[in-house]
Each structure stands twice: as structure tokens, then as C-alpha cells.
Amino acid sequence: MYAYIEGELKLVNEDFIVIDVSGIGYEIWCPNPLRFQSKLNQELKVFTYFYVREDIQMLYGFKHNEEKDLFKKLLNVSGIGPKNALSIVSQTAVQDFALAIEQENDAYLTKFPGVGKKTARQMILDLKGKVDQWMQVQTDDVFTIEHEVTANDHHIYDEAVEALLALGYTKREIDKIGPKLKAQPSTSTDDLVKHGLQLLMR
Predict the structure, then answer these.
(1) Where is this region: Domain III (predicted)?
(2) CB distance 115 to 84 below 8 Å
(3) Of 29, 62, 96, 136, which has the fewest CB atoms closer than 10 Å, so is most exposed?
(4) Is residue 46 within 8 Å of 21, Cβ to Cβ?
(5) For residue 24, how many other CB atoms are within 10 A of its CB?
(6) Which residues does 77 contact at the CB level (< 8 Å), separation at least 6?
(7) Helix-strand-coil split of the chain, %, nearest 5
(8) What was the pLDDT predicted at 152?
(9) pLDDT at 60 over 50
(10) Which residues contact 187 (CB under 8 A, 6 or more apart)?
């Protein structure tokens, strides 16, 4: 219904952005909304997808059209809803996802929160041969899970997660902040735990 929305970016939070178009504020749920922070109070164009079901109507937005297309394809996979699809798009580049599908790389796909082996196999079954055109697509600011973990030292990240679990937080709560935690440059477990606590207490 809406191919894209272009207007003044009025609000950015952890889950969605608000774009003003001729006095109407559109609440748009995005993967990694904070990536738009530098455009606050400026003109912004996002590619959008209007999700409609009997009990819900939500507008999703993406920086790149390929991300929107990936989101739409994921919604066609049995067992993947908009929340899971948005989480996946927020944590991978389209070319890396396409490569994982074409190579049937279950290990890569099961790194996404909420994706087990059964769902990973279903994604491969439903999408193989349908996403290979993205294997050469490059975007400017989306990093794969593997890149993020390597940059921050996988061992430090795992220790930080264990520390947060010991403090009483659930795995679900920690998974929600996982992408931001992995993207945080930290030289020690303590630093990463402190940053994790800041995210969890927001």
C-alpha cells in the first residue's frame, strides 16, 4: 500500500521512528531505528511495508529496499511473524542472509533469536533460489552477526551474557538487546555488562 514515506524525522526510539508528512505523524517500526538518529529533524525517506491482520495494523520501514524485500519474503516462511522477521533483518546484511540460504548454512541462521533448527530448515526450504539475486548487494551500515561478534570478542560477549543471567535477567530480555550489545566496542566483560545493564534498564 505504501511503497515509501518521505518527510521530516521527528522522533527516534529503540523500536520505531516518527516521520511527519504534511502534519501527519507516521509511526514506523524499523530494524535498528537508532541508525536514523543523525537525520533527526531532517528530511528522511524510508521504504515501507503496511502489515495488516484482523487484530493488528502496523507500518514497517527500512533504509534499503532490499531490506524491505527480505522482510516480506520472511513473512512468507511458515513460523516467521513480523517480530521475528524484523529481528532477522536488523541483524544481517541481505547478501549474507542470501548466501546462508543458498549454502544451506543452518549454523548461521540459528544465530538469530527465536530461530531453531526446524525454522532454519523451513527458511531454506521456502527461500532457496528466491534470494540469490541479493548475494552481490552491498549496503552501507548493516553488519552480519558474525562480524559483530568477532569485532567485540565472542568470549567477552558470552561472559557478559552469563553475568546478566546471574543478575536475574532472562534470556529473552538479553536476546532483545543482543544486537546493540554485540555492536558495542568493549575491551572487558565488565564494560559490556555495564552497557548491558544500561540497555536493560531503559
Answers:
(1) 149-202
(2) yes
(3) 136
(4) no
(5) 9
(6) 119, 122, 123, 126, 127
(7) 50, 20, 30
(8) 43
(9) yes
(10) none
**Residue 30 grid cell:** 524499523
163 pairs with which residues across the strands?
none
Q: What are the chain's domains?
A: 4-62 (2.40.50.140), 65-134 (1.10.150.20), 145-200 (1.10.8)
- Rounded to the nearest 10 degrees, the angle between the axes of helix 145-152 and helix 154-166 is 90
pLDDT at residue 148 is higher than 50: no
Instruction: Say whether 2 sits in a helix, a strand or coil.
Output: coil
Neighbours of 187 (CB within 10 A): 10
Total number of residues shown for the chain: 202
Binned at pLDDT 50, 70 and 90, residue 165 comes out as confident
Q: What is the pLDDT of residues 34-50, one digit of tens each?
A: 889 889 999 999 999 99
Q: What is the pLDDT of residue 83?
A: 92
pTM listed for this prediction:
0.68
> Which residues, including other chains, have CB under 8 Å from residue 95's CB and lie 6 or more apart?
134, 135, 136, 137, 138
Query: Which of 162, 172, 147, 169 has the alpha carbon at shortest distance from 192?
Result: 162
